[in-house]
Amino acid sequence: MNIKELSRELEVSEQALRSWCKRNGVRKESESEAKGKKAGYLLTENDVESMKIYYSAKGKREKEIKKGNESKTLDILAEQLVEKDKQIASLLEQLKAKDAQLLQLNDKLTAAQALHAGTIQALQDKQESQAQNETSMAEEQPTAAQDQIKELSEQLQELKAENRKKEQAQEQLTARITELETAAATSATKSTIWSRLFHRSKK
């Protein structure tokens, strides 16, 4: 069996087989034996058997290494997905708490507005019958109510802004999870493509 035939059988390039022969001291043809052609290696049965054993073991090692690398990649992706799930769960809890605060502030704001409207109406009813000093004292109440409404409105706007930031962060996390899931799903396909390209390059 010559190098070319063995290359087809083992699916290994002829150059790789020649390198093996050189490393292992396989005898080459003499000029007279080559008869003007490029001198090749004279393979014995022992040489052929040794090469088959070597490249068979090498192929198994490469497959095991590739399989191990793919397994590690999938483990890393799985850990990242678990971590992202935890982050999303935490964000959802924070959003629920913010929603509760918004509802509470809305209730307070509504009550303050109602109090303000009631106070103004009461003052209008009393203006004709009360003395100037009573009217002056009563006019301070709407000012306090207005200040309270302003403060509650500002708090409400701040909470809404925080809520929007949380929603944007959740959208970014969801997009990242989709990207990781896509990478995990296509990992096996990529492995198959690489394996086929590897065998074709040997041929």
Automatic annotation (TrEMBL):
Region ranges (Disordered): 125-172
Extent of Polar residues compositional bias: 125-146
Record's keyword annotation contains Coiled coil: yes
Biased composition (Basic and acidic residues): 148-169
Coiled coil keyword on record: yes
Keyword terms of this UniProt record: Coiled coil
Coiled coil: 74-112
UniProt name for this protein: Uncharacterized protein
Organism, as annotated: Ruminococcus flavefaciens
